[in-house]
Each structure stands twice: as C-alpha cells, then as structure tokens.
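Supplementary Methods. Inverse-folding protocol.

Structures were first reduced to a discrete structure-token string of length 502. This string, shown here, constituted the complete conditioning input.
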C-alpha cells in the first residue's frame, strides 16, 4: 500500500481533491491497473449503528460490529471490491485477495488513527463448504464504499473508491466532496449519505431524525407478536445428545457441540438493525454484529466469544466453555458461579478447549500464555468459564494463518476436531451457515479482530432463524443441555420483540 503525506483535513477543498484524484488516475495509468483509493478523516462523534440504520439498504453488503465494554464500534457498507471463496484453502485465498488489493492501494489520512485506511470485512461459515440454497458463501470479503469506526472516543470516517486509468475525475471528486460534507454535519434521519458517498445508488432524504415523541410511537408499534417453531421435532435435540453420548462411549470423540434452531415468523418484515440495537443494549460485554449478503438476508447476534485479535504483533484469544444460569439474587448468583468453578464436568469441557488452542497454535511456532485457572465471565442471563490466552506472533505468521488453524474451536465444534465436526450436520439436522462461523475484519497493516457467530439469527424478511448450542461431554444430560440452549435463546427472542418493521 502506498501512503501519501497529504492531509485531507488541511487540504479540504474541491480543487485539492481533484488534484489528488488526478494523481491517482495517473498512477493507475502507469501501472495499467485500477487503484483502490482510501481517504481517512477524523470526524466528530458519530454512532456507527445509527448511521448504518439511517441509510440501511437490504440489497447492499454491510458489516457492523460493536463491543460497548471496549468502546469499539465499526460499520461499513456498499462494496467497492468483494471476493468469495470456498474449500479448505479459503483462508489462504482470501489472504491472496487482500495482498493483491493492497499492492494497488493509495491511502491518505492519519493511518495511525483507529479504523483508518481500507478494512477487509470478512465472514467465514462454520464449514468450508456450503449447501445449495444457503444465504452466505463459505467465505465473503468486501472493502466498503464507506466506513465509520470508533475506538476509545475517536471517530474516523473512511471513503474508499476505485480509480481506473480512464476514471471521470470531476464526477468522482464531486461524490467524495458530498460525502465529506455529509459526515461533517450528519443527520441520522437522512438516507442519502449512501448516494453521496462515492457513487452509491442512494435515495432522496426523508427528513430529520424523529422527535422523541415519534420515536416512542415507533417503538410501541414494533412490539408485534411472532410465531415460534422448533426446526425439527420437539424431541430431536435430546435424541441428538443421547446419540452423541453413545459415540463418546465408543471413543469416537471426546466432545461435540450441538445446536438447536428455532424459526420466528412475523406478520411484517424484521428490521435487523432494530433487533441488533436491543442486543447491544442488553449485552455490553458481547460483540453485537450484523452481516448482510447483499441479497436481502442479514446475520445478526451478540457473541460473547472473541476468536482472536492481532494488534502490534501480539495475539489475543480465549477459551469460553462451561456455563450456568445467572441467579435471581446476588447470593444465588455467587453460589451458582462457585458451583460452576468447581464442577468437574464443566472444567473438563473448558480444559479441552485450552488444550486444543495450544495444539493448533504450536505448528505456527506460537507459544501461548494463560492463567492456570478459569474465571467467571458473566452475561445478563448466563455465566461462563473464561480463560484469556496471549502470545507473541512470530515473524511471517499472519492473522489468517492463525484463524485457519483455530477455526472451528472445540467451544463450537468438538475435539478431536477431525472426528467431531463431521458428525455435527447429521446430528443437528440443519446447515449452520454462519452460525459458529468466524466474523470480523483485517486492516491494511495486518491487524484485525474476529469473533464467533454465536447467540445469533439469520433474518430473511418476516422470518428469522435463531441458533443456540451447548457443549456435550461425558456426563452431559440431554435435559440439562436442552435447558442451556433454551436459556441462550431467550436473549435473541427478547430482542426480536423490537425488531419488526413498523
């Protein structure tokens, strides 16, 4: 990637912008190929989810991620570049796409600012291949036309565009300039920022953001009832757990994670971002997320599990396995947590995840460090055993190399992975798609963050498919595992009460 010293804030005139884009077109002409041009500018505080909701278009790709407890939020929409892949080499194929893109990228603005520069938003399904009719490809990558990111109180807006040797500079400059003006004085009620931002389709503005009185009426109007249906017969999950325990007794595998799915049917289409807003407010310690496929379907959720983060040459991952409900009082909550910390079955399940992480990182020369005992990680409705894992990333090892080795972890698949994962599709009775997949982003410097697609739902118009799973090990009870998944479903079903379009 070529980084130019031009400061967009100090050269914020239409003439300077045209001159810059002329230079980019000249570079494209000399190289004989199009250039990705990325313009980053620090702006006043914006809520990325509110911005995305204001310009939401079901037919456009988007990705939104927020973890309120870490003061992190980023949204990107409309693809200027995209790529899909499948098969066991899908991570390597995506890395090649990133490398080829960055080799022809020109960036301006402070690249040290949080979420500056081009970002590659990525979604990998649980399995390396998908079945006919699934909503998402096995690997989806895109560079957004526009992006807004926040971290630690700083907000950065990024505009990305492709400049070809014959690009119409006047038209491109006008679109970029309009986008700059929109971010400088953004009204959350406007929907035309997408059109202003580098040539998106856009629609005319619909007016200013609603008054508090209007917002209250809208919120009450969305509390619409929906029908709930189990995918498969009501006893399917208990039978699947029983069969898995029998396979363990035959030493086929030590652990397997089995999920249930429920389908919600509403009288009106669900709005994925309204449901997401309910999740982010309830679960501030989770990754609230929404990923769209550009064909009308969105995958949303509130995941408690970070898969990995790479920043300044350091790797962070975690083991999250073993769970119990929250108590109705402080005393009961503490008692339940104490039982969880001493439960042999839950501790064994947790240890299997840590052992697998260490085995999967070893071939890459990574030596992880972690505490000797897990701690409690408490969410609104459930508490988990949690162990953070840290390591130095060796030279030459990249984020996607690590991701390819870690995914899927025993926390969502099983162990041994090669033995357990092939049984999941048969036992569960439905394709997982992005459920328990790897979602996140990579920046232009090789850093990035991925989390696991848990406590999630696939939204398709007035229908939503919800997913929840539990780890099965020797000593598991079909009834208790069913109850655990039911507990995890509660969060999503509550959020969807606010997610029907008014």
């Amino acid at each position: 990637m070529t980084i130019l010293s031009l400061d967009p804030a100090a050269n914020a005139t239409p003439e300077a912008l045209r001159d810059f884009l002329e230079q980019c077109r000249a570079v494209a002409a000399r190289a004989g190929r199009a250039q990705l041009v990325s313009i980053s500018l620090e702006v006043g505080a914006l809520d990325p989810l509110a911005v995305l909701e204001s310009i939401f278009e079901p037919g456009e790709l988007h990705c939104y991620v927020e973890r309120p407890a870490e003061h992190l939020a980023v949204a990107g929409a409309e693809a200027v570049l995209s790529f899909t892949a499948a098969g066991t080499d899908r991570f390597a194929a995506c890395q090649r796409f990133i490398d080829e893109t960055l080799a022809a990228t020109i960036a301006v603005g402070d690249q040290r600012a949080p979420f500056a520069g081009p970002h590659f938003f990525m979604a990998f399904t649980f399995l390396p291949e998908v079945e006919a009719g699934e909503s998402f490809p096995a690997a989806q990558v895109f560079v957004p036309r526009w992006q807004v990111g926040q971290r630690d109180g700083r907000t950065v807006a990024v505009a990305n565009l492709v400049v070809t040797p014959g690009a119409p500079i006047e038209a491109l400059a006008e679109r970029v300039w309009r986008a700059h003006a929109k971010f400088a004085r953004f009204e959350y009620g406007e929907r035309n920022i997408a059109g202003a931002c580098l040539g998106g389709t856009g629609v005319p503005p619909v007016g200013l953001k609603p008054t508090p009185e209007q917002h209250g009426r809208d919120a009450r109007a969305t509390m619409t009832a929906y029908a709930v249906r189990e995918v498969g017969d009501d006893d399917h999950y208990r039978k699947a757990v029983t069969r898995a325990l029998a396979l363990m007794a035959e030493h086929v595998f030590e652990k397997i994670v089995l999920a249930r799915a429920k389908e919600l049917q509403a009288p009106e289409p669900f709005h994925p971002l309204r449901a997401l807003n309910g999740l982010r407010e309830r679960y501030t310690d989770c990754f609230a997320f929404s990923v769209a496929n550009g064909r009308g379907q969105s995958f949303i959720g509130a995941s408690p599990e970070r898969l990995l983060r790479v920043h300044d040459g350091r790797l962070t991952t975690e083991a999250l396995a073993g769970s119990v409900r929250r108590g109705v009082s402080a005393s009961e909550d503490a008692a339940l947590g104490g039982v969880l910390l001493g439960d042999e079955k839950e501790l064994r399940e947790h240890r299997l995840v840590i052992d697998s992480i260490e085995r999967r990182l070893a071939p890459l020369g990574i030596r992880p460090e972690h505490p000797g005992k897990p701690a409690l990680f408490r969410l609104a409705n459930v508490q988990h055993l949690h162990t953070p894992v840290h390591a130095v990333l060796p030279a030459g090892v990249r984020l996607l190399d690590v991701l390819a080795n870690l995914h899927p972890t025993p926390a969502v698949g099983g162990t041994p992975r090669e033995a357990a994962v092939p049984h999941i599709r048969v036992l569960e009775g439905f394709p997982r798609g992005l459920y328990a997949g790897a979602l996140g982003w990579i920046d232009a410097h090789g850093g990035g963050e991925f989390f696991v697609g848990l406590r999630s739902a696939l939204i398709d118009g007035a229908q939503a498919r919800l997913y929840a799973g539990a780890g099965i090990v020797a000593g598991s009870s079909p009834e208790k595992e069913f109850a655990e998944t039911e507990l995890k479903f509660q969060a999503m079903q509550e959020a969807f009460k606010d997610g029907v379009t008014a």
